Amino acid sequence: MYDVQQLTKVYNTGPARVVALDSVSFAIADGAMVAIMGRSGSGKSTLLRQMGLLDRPTSGRILFDGKEVGALPEGDKARLRLKALGYIFQEYALLGELTAHQNVYLPGMMLNGGGNYKDRARELLEIVGLGARTAHYPRELSGGEQQRVAIARALINSPHVLLADEPCANLDTVSSHMVMETLVRLNRDLKVTIVFVSHDPDDKKYAQRVITLSDGRIAEGVDRQA
User: Fold this and answer.
1) What CATH number should be reported for the domain holding residue 217?
2) Nearest Cα to Cα of residue 37 among 28, 48, 27
3) Is 209 helix (H, G, I), strand (E, B) or coil?
């Protein structure tokens, strides 16, 4: 699925040079449920953005299904994101003027996946436990419900992998558990590869494997598998 090789990301902000990722290498197998852990500023979200093709690495390679994708032209990256990757943002990133149903099917409409994307969106909202909330707008949903809408939206084009950036950062304990259990169920039942970022040590229990970052590097001895 993923083969990350010597990935480095450097930000130059005026006179400052910040090494966000420093020669990070690892592989993730198809169907895995992986947590990327670490303190704030350790490079977790930067790494996920590289894997989601939302940013270009300074050096190193990202292979996805055996093909190098980190250096693809932006148009090719956009098509690959739309077809093969689902990305879940910690701030939900829902469109306030659209209903839950419309938010979910929008990427399907963009892909021009035929006339069944609206039915698929309803099915996904049922899967994440929001079948009765399809006509509600984001302002009418709780934070946990909005994040589950975002999960359904990320699944609309049947991606090979879901990437979730701190999916529970803005949620209470009960909502966080519901969101994480939803991801576990999707990984188990739909066989979707899931990579999620978290700074909460309790979230390790949801992962089959934990990769811990420290100062932009994989912390020695703490890339563990359950």
Assistant:
1) 3.40.50.300
2) 48
3) strand
The structural domain count of the chain equals 1
The letter for the amino acid at 190 is L
**Which of 109, 114, 183, 104 is closest to 150 using CA atoms?**
104
Q: Which helix (H) or strand (E) holds 27?
A: strand 16-28
Helical spans, DSSP H, in 26-116:
44-51, 74-84, 100-111
Residue 161 lies inside a defined structural domain of this protein: yes
Token output for 9: 């990301």
Q: Which residues contact 75 (CB under 8 A, 6 or more apart)?
A: none
Chain segment 136-165, per-residue pLDDT in tens: 999 999 999 999 999 999 999 889 999 999
**Contact (CB, 8 A) for 70 and 46:** no
Q: What is the mean pLDDT of residues 17-32?
A: 95
Taking alpha carbons only, the member of 85, 88, 89, 71 closest to residue 1 is 85
